[in-house]
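Table 4 source record.
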Amino acid sequence: MPEPRLIVITRPDAAALAAEAAAGLLQPAAAVSPKFLYDALGSRLFDAITELDEYYPTRTEATIFAAHGAAIADAVLAATGPGPVLVDLGAGDGAKAARLFPRLAPRRYVAVDISAGYLRAALQRLAREHPGIEMLGVALDFAAGLQLPEGVVDGPALVFYPGSSIGNFAPEAARTLLADMRRASRGGAVLLGVDLVKPAPRLQVAYDDALGVTAAFNLNVLRRLNALLGADFQPRQWRHVALVDAAAARVEMHLQAREPLVVRWPGHERAFAAGERIHTENAHKWTLPGFAALLAEAGCEQMRHWTDAAGDFALFVAR
């Protein structure tokens, strides 16, 4: 069994992350990047969110793959040819991509994620389970630009971005990422999960569940900021807020101060009035024509899509 390879492009830089977080907190309208939600505990809490009754995207995407997997694979292979390179963005443990292995028979699996340690463990497990596939990891913060090292993709590839993660990007940034994905595919295909526009009550409960798991996930960012900055956030002074902006077709996650307070960290402090918020994440939703138009603007063509019976979620393949 060949040993998996790991190429580290982005190395965690605590000072740079702290500076980025501090700059966000000191804006007139405080905000932090959603990447700060995903430390080790945050990632486990998000895994728990995907098991909730209210959170439909993960299981709905799985039902679409189960119902239409053969047609999706045919559309991909028509663009890539047999034995493609499979590039998995935000790979995590690689489980979603691994479900494609039997139908696509990729010759190389390229897992792209910001965490080198997480990638290493995932690739070693996948290499044991799929010894016929070359395993390669690229530790990269692709939100800042998807530029893969030379030779990683040596022919038409499938670039895979499941789970509606494209929704974390505002439309202009999403268009830029899609164009990067198109270039990375080298004439192959992209395959994306896309959460679709739906009534506000469905979205509200999906991002503010009855058990409070999403609230814990969001509040955990305060713990992360305390560790990064040496700050003194007290999570009990804050509450999770999920807002549906129907006009902008997105859900916004915020942390809202329950009372007037001051947060301090070395060299800085920030006062928050009662009710003032820190914006932590957006989740943009799309219509089928709207996302097809975005793909076209990014230079993709020959789009196909599949949805669940209720029209909650879609999988798009584009050349």
